[in-house]
Predict the 3D structure of the following.
Amino acid sequence: MFKLVRYFIKTIFISFYEDGEFFVVKKTITYKNKIIKNHTFKFRKNVFKEFINLILIEYNQVYISTFVDSFNQGIALKKSDEVYCLDLENYCIYVDKTELNQFYKKMRQFKVDFIFSPYLLLHFIHRNKPNTIYLIITPSFVILTIYENRDYPKYSKTYPFKIDIDIENGELVEFLKYSIKEYYENYSDNFLENIYIFYDDIKKEFIDCVKNEVKLLGLDVESKNIDVLLLLNQIAQKELNV
């Protein structure tokens, strides 16, 4: 009965991430399981808290999501009691338990319902190609995975710094080179052929510079601008089946 009632009223999905002193926010309105409106905002912390409180007063069905901010997260082929694991089809996404708990305590002030790992995005946007690198670049996080076959990733790495697009991108390129070297030495000797770069709220000039450096490594490069917060709201919608 509750699900039927929810079907006939508007449901609001709020997703956000921190970008320096600001919160980047996506508000998605759904009705009868369909997205009818999207709005993007940028707030300072105190204004964002006020925005959340007003949304919760105005609407009955509100679900708030964000990405966990942790360097100690990634892909694993086996579960471990040392970390929190989300089971997917052939692998799991892990996050350090201590860091996840600390992050949850930090996010409680924003009435968060879901905390997702950014690695979950790759489960929905990867291109089903073997021997391929997937790189997601946002102001909030940078993650990398490598698929040896078409079904699941074999390697992952989280960039330990926030991206500063106003400085030279050499550190990010070195991170990519190190990841490839580590993959060849410890995970597979299959030749990597492709790299897909997904980015959000990053200047195209910055991405073009990264692409030019990557081409020197002998990889076929494709890039695409994506909306990670819209994807996050869609993941929450899928989780609730609304």
Observations:
- The chain has a mean pLDDT of 90.
